[in-house]
Amino acid sequence: MPQGYLALVLHAHLPFVRHPEYNEFLEEDWLYEAITETYIPLINMMDGLLDDGIDFRLTMSVTPPLASMLRDPLLQDRYIRNIEKLIELSKKEIDRAGGNQAKYDLACFYHDRFLNCRYVFVDKYGKDLVAAFRKFQDAGKLEIITCGATHGFFPLMAEHPEAIRAQIMIARDHYRECFGRDPRGIWLPECAYVPGIEKFLQEAEIRWFIVDTHGVLFAEPRPQFGIFAPIFTRSGPAAFGRDMESSKQVWSADEGYPGDAAYRDFYRDLGYDAEFDYIKPYIQSNGLRKFTGIKYHRITGRTAHKELYHRHTAWERSAEHAGNFMFNRERQIEHLAATLGNTPIVVSPYDAELFGHWWFEGPDFLNFFFRKTACDQDIFKTITPGEYLQKFPTHQLATPSASSWGSKGYWEVWLEGSNSWIYQHLHAANTRMTDMARQHRDCYGLYDRAMKQAARELLLAQSSDWAFIMKTGTMVPYAVKRTKDHLLRFNRICDQLQSNSVDEAFLSNVEWRDNIFPNINWRYYI
């Protein structure tokens, strides 16, 4: 029997971005880049592990907005258009590499990579990556967990419990549609928790969730085993705390593996380096440049001059780092087991997009880590939090502390000078949605459609991504516009409902634009 367990948890999430009113839209690239650089590499990794008989466990959220986009025919077809343009561009790069062997090898690497992405997406999984992830869950290797319906920031909805309940129950229903079962775990958006959320998780029959380190360490009463065992809340669901030691080794660009000089540099991209006339067909139609995903340089160091990327060297470095990460977890778990006297679990959560998108070699690191862990040591095993609860069903009863995994551990990222203006409008909309749901609880037909769309618009306005973008200062006009647009549509629909004059043409247009959750149950707001 192992001395302890490690749970790697990847949070796969993107805000719902879908613009059928335009032929192309820059922010849709967030999805296409994530498919090419993160989701397909993770799928390839898990397929390889299964083919080679490697036993592994991985936990991964696939949030409702992400799953909705991955299943959307419009976005599926637009991804194919995107990857085919990259295949064409990479072929041109091969042809123009000339006698530069290093550039030629990298161009061939990207061309083969893009061809593989098209094969996996179109031929192997029929454009349905949600089905691909479901396959690994059905094989018992991957536990897929849910999230808030649109990644709403729950602590700032605490005055409106109906809104939190709707976020959780609508997410649960959507998970059933995607994966054919109920979710056992949930990634609370931004790992943000305040006491009381667990009663809605219990109603949805969700058994566990993750909080940041201090959410467990400052629980009441103090947990005997700290973050290295879950605690049961008084409503039932268990809370697992994030281990900072293992987390920081991976996500920190300064102290962790991703900052190694051998790894690919994220910011140097052909879309900005190439001559304009050459790259014009592959950037924005208005002539503004953008990332293509073809990057020829390695991190090198804190210098403007960047050396060429050497794929094999970076691949070998990812194997070294995987071995180091395994060694550190062996020593950590040996120490915990001897000191605490229990069978500890180390929970290491990360944004999934770190692996492949931000840290290009991240999927290689995971692949090496799972193989080394299965074959080269017996101190610990990988596990999912759900499996750990099945193996060890008895734990301390405690109430986690209010917390998030944002900067300084609470709400500062999502409630400060740049974004605080949104909350008076969101609070008013939450109140109005509850009132409208109670007034129209027995409606049907056109009015039922209007209530469904009002719920969709409110949920989309609640996405924590918009406040986060306003705080970080990137794509701020888009985040502001999305917040305002959804609130304006929500209020227009409510005005029409109150005046008994629903405009079907307007409603149909909004349903076409914001088509998330086609089977939404708006009565959760009652």
What does this structure look like?
There is one protein chain. The model has no long low-confidence stretch (mean pLDDT 97). The chain has 526 residues and is an alpha/beta fold. Strands 1, 2, 3, 4, 5, 6, 7, 8 and 9 form a 9-stranded mixed β-sheet that branches. A hairpin with a 5-residue loop joins strand 6 and strand 7. The protein is built from 19 helices and 9 strands. It has 2 domains: 4-71 and 128-264 and 309-408, Glycoside hydrolase 38, N terminal domain (7-stranded beta/alpha barrel, Alpha-Beta Barrel); 416-525, Families 57/38 glycoside transferase, middle domain (immunoglobulin/albumin-binding domain-like, Up-down Bundle). The radius of gyration is 23 Å and the shape is globular. Helix content is 50%, strand content 8%. Helix 15 runs antiparallel to helix 16 and helix 16 (446-461) crosses helix 19 (504-513).
